Amino acid sequence: MVGRIREQLDREGLADNTVIVFASDHGIMNGEFGLGGKALNYESCLRVPLIIMDPRVAPSECGRRSNALVESVDIAPTLLDCAGVELPRGMQGHSLRGIIEGTEDAVRSSSFAENLWSTQFGNPRIESVRTDDGWKYIRYFKNDRSLFEEIAKKKQFRATPKLIASYHDWLTASINGEEPVFEELYHLATDPSESVNLATRPTCTDKLHQLRAECQRLVTFAKGEVEQAPATVVIDQTKGRKAQ
Questions:
Q1: How many domains does the chain have?
Q2: pLDDT range class, residue 114, cuts 50, 70, 90
Q3: Alpha helix (H) ranges present in 14-73?
Q4: What pTM, to 2 d.p., does this model score?
């Protein structure tokens, strides 16, 4: 598929002016820990391929591999930067152009991830942080799926006010003081499979506290300064529709 796209770009005379990004939205659990699916914050779910080809990059820099911590929110700033467009004020993410061109090695020292998806199937609310020195912290929050079970029973698969209010609470719960019900701490540098939880080890107490604070900082930065989380803004879904 990628090859055919590049061939078509050549035919259209656009190959020298097109940045190509190949990525995925999530990984997958294939039996690790006896689990399946895509809604957890283990590395097998969070890590995705990211290949960026900019035809303007010097041949000496082509094919470079990077171990930099990046996030999906970096893709939009990267493309805008490559196009010479000034990034909008308040836009999340970092441009990866420096990494692509070989002028930078990293854009952040820690990365944040969360899961709020498909809790009606029992997936927990999760937040996690990974640092560039090989540490990973995951925290889980109490999951009440009774509302989703009620919606499923009534077949009300739409954004009801009650559901929006519940989702808003989930989005902002941790920055408003909700305590996690379970924590995990892994040293990925020596335990890449995340098999030894160090959260209760006395020797790792300082690291646990450090990553708790970093996770709180990142989640607050991501969504703690808005009056209403963007995903819960009510949109009139009837606009533009013809009367039935």
A1: 2
A2: very high
A3: 43-46
A4: 0.84
